[in-house]
Design goal:
By secondary structure, the protein is of the alpha+beta class. 45% of the residues lie in helices and 12% in strands. It has one domain: NADH Oxidase. Strands 1-2-4-3 form a 4-stranded antiparallel sheet, sandwiched between helices. It starts with a helix and ends in a 6-residue tail after the last helix.
């Protein structure tokens, strides 16, 4: 096993940071790692907004559901789908197809993961902030996003001030299918639920009595940000 794989397997979400800033050369390296990520047809439909303004950070923390680490992290990056520059290059660009929104979301995720892995390889830590979509229109206006551009998620980065445990994942044989989709063995989920119950009960912070099945049921049994489609349509995206 090499150091790259060790970094990947040791991933943990970091939500508490020291006051030490990230050096400019480190941030430059992180961004360059992101820019090196795969891009569908080299469309390069991602923009990153680095938020350094303290007042904006405070508002973004509130919009994300009062997640204080959005404000306290050394760096906060917002990843956006961006077809605006393509439309400016040529007004015949049609960015409102659902496929293009999917490409923007996929490319943003790939770029962001490159950034996070680069940061972790430098001894830094981070966490994704999907909570920006709770108040996505407010975030959009705060950051001054034009048409054909939309907020996807944020990312906190900084020097870790905590050492949380690595959260268990579903076993590979549940996720990997060979040649065709395989039926789920619910015994595998029961075993995984037991692993997650033990993890939640024994982790160093935010202990709780819950299983993975209970957590995903709570998450997926109700509405999930129903305003998102309207927001994307208003930005000129995913209309057809």
């Amino acid at each position: 096993m090499n150091s790259t794989i060790e970094t990947m397997l040791g991933h943990r979400s970091i939500r508490k940071y020291t006051e030490q800033p990230i050096e400019q050369h480190q941030l430059d390296t992180i961004i360059q790692a992101g820019l090196a990520a795969s891009s569908s047809s080299l469309l390069q439909v991602v923009s990153i907004i680095r938020v350094t303004d303290k007042d904006k950070r405070q508002l973004l923390a509130q919009y994300a559901g009062n997640q204080a680490y959005v404000e306290s992290a050394a760096e906060f990056l917002v990843f956006c789908i961006d077809y605006q520059r393509h439309a400016l290059i040529n007004p015949e660009v049609q960015a409102d197809f659902a496929e293009l929104t999917l490409i923007g979301a996929v490319d943003s995720g790939i770029m962001a993961q490159n950034c996070l892995l680069a940061a972790e390889s430098l001894g830094l830590g981070g966490v994704y902030i999907g909570g920006l979509r709770n108040k996505v229109q407010e975030v959009d206006e705060l950051l001054g996003l034009p048409d054909n551009t939309a907020v996807l998620f944020g990312m906190c980065l900084g020097h870790p001030d905590q050492t949380p445990e690595v959260k268990p994942r579903l076993p590979a044989h549940v996720v990997i299918h060979e040649n065709q989709y395989q039926s789920l063995n619910l015994d595998d989920i029961k075993n995984y639920d037991q692993s997650m119950q033990s993890y939640y009960a024994n982790r160093s912070s935010n202990q709780k009595q819950s299983s993975w099945s209970q957590e995903i049921t709570a998450k997926l049994s109700g509405e999930s940000r129903p305003h998102i489609l309207t927001y994307l349509n208003r930005k000129g995206l995913i209309k057809r």
